[in-house]
Amino acid sequence: MPASWNTVRADFPILAQQVNGRPLVYLDNAATSQKPQCVIDALVDYYSKDNANVHRGIHALSMRATAAYEAARERSAKFLNAASASEIVFTGGTTDGINLVANAWGDENLKAGDVILLTEMEHHSNLVPWQLLARRTGAKLRFLPVVAGDTGLLDLAKLPEVLTPDVKLFAFTHVSNTLGVINPVADLVAAAKKVGALTLIDAAQSAGHMVVDVRAIGCDFLVVSGHKMCGPTGIGLLYGRQELLDAMPPYRGGGSMISSVTYEEAKWAPAPQKFEAGTPNIADAIALARAMDYLDELGRAEIMRHDERLAALAYERITKEVPGIRVLGPAHHRSGVLSFAIPGAHAHDVVTLADQEGIALRGGHHCNQPLMKKLGLTSTSRASFYLYNTADDIERLIFALKKIQKFFAV
Ligand code: C6P
User: Fold this and answer.
1) Largest CA distance in the chain
2) Count: domains in the chain
């Protein structure tokens, strides 16, 4: 844990700037997080000293690049507490990881009559790939509902009704990017196991904010985006249980993923290589490993407490000091994602006015259109907190929201 969370901000050079004449308050962390200097340095170091293609060359640079890339895989396995580095596939991000499983596992294992169970709070990335798979295979989608009202909690009482033996895969988010709800992932996995369903967890909003231990959770697949956890864009992780990855065919063909090729056919390299066709994103994988070190130096359990404290403070202050505002998600035990709607004000206008105060929010449907519809909304404004945010940022947010509310009241 840092001596003071206020000092963490200094690790992120981008935060030193002014936006519209005011010090930047960056509250769009659920979209992407900022990068600490050590991650930027890792990228620059790699390209300045070690850059070469991996798994191909036997010259010094290539061997160094390969060693660093594979060390990043080991680091990622440790970060998620996977049993082995060969259970980690480098991907382009969460979306890419889900598409990989939907294609490689789904096409091989699903047929008409099978059910893919999702929840009503899934990001489009954990919905559309399954819709495409259902169209290809004849499988059906089913949804675990969210309870009525604005807490956004899953209706766990409905689980026995929807989690029946025809469910072959239960795919759900760990943390909602709109509601801030933290789902009881280990319980959901245990329930899925009872009916023989596999599980995929979308950890896009959790992996950089709390301890995510795939063995403790017991899931079969878990996907992560590096850019939401202080790492670069364009890199992510797919964790897959070894025997599942071993049994899955490749998703994409190309160089590096084969053991032998003739003009007629090819044999695959073992997992994870068979899922990493072509030149991988070497530099970003290495920099992501540095981001993991950074997060672990601060302590992921501490980061979670920090996010939770900020979200609870923001929730309390907004509901008390900006009356009439509609805040989504639970008041406590939530992530740092806080969505809200100001009656009479479009979310894009709220975000534009906040930007004039130097505050970065996100407005829109957050790739959650069906959930928005269920909540009777088309969009929300969203503040999402991370390790460099402080109570002073919330002070600035409250000041801006009061001003915005007044603006729309006249
Ligand atoms: N949510 C947000 O502003 P990618 O784009 O592949 O890195 O992550 C997709 C994704 C999947 N699941 C969840 C829960 C997510 O929050 C996201 C990304 C961003 O909320 C961009 S829409």
Assistant:
1) 73
2) 2
**62 with 143, same domain?**
yes
Q: How many angstroms separate the alpha carbon of residue 204 from the centre of ligand 1?
A: 6
Q: Residue of the nearest CA to atom 1 in ligand 1?
A: 31
Q: Is 367 a catalytic residue?
A: yes
Q: Are strands 140-144 and 115-119 parallel, antiparallel or unpaired?
A: parallel
Does the structure show a pLDDT above 70 at 410?
no
Of 297, 327, 343, which one is at a domain's C-terminal end? Answer: 297
Ligand 1 and 347: CB distance under 6 A: no
Q: Decide: 231 and 39 in contact? Cβ < 8 Å.
A: yes
| Boundary of a domain, candidates 238, 268, 297 | 297
Whether residues 343 and 269 fall in one domain: no
Q: CA nearest 231: which of 206, 202, 201, 208?
A: 208
Phi then psi for 409, rounded to 5 degrees? -80, -25
- Out of 3-17, 168-182, 197-211, which region has the weakest mean confidence (pLDDT)? 3-17
**Ligand 1 binding pocket mutation candidate from 123, 183, 235 (most atoms within 8 A of CB):** 123
Report which ligand 1 atom has the smallest distance to the Cα of 94: 6
Distance CA 347, CA 352 (A): 9
Same-domain check for residues 120 and 173? yes
Domain-located, residue 36: no
Instruction: Report whether residue 396 contacts ligand 1, using a CB cutoff of 6 Å.
Output: no
Q: What would the mean pLDDT of 181-195 be, rounded to a whole number?
A: 98
pLDDT tens digits along 28-64: 999 999 999 999 999 999 999 999 999 987 999 999 9
* Per-residue confidence band for 1, with pLDDT thresholds at 50, 70 and 90: confident
d(CA 148, CA 220): 30
38, 219, 230, 367: which is the annotated catalytic residue? 367
Element spanning 161, H or E: helix 159-162
Q: Is 300 in the pocket of ligand 1 (CB under 6 A)?
A: no
237 Cα to the center of ligand 1, angstroms? 14
Which of 90, 118, 125, 127 is the best mutation target for the ligand 1 pocket, counting ligand atoms within 8 Å of the beta carbon and taking the most?
Answer: 125
**What's the pLDDT tens digit per position in 341-356?**
999 999 999 999 999 9
Q: Is the pLDDT of residue 224 over 80?
A: yes
Same domain for 176 and 48, yes or no, is: yes
Q: Which domain holds residue 133?
A: 41-297
Q: Left (φ > 0), alpha (ψ -120 to 50) or beta: where does 218 sit?
A: left
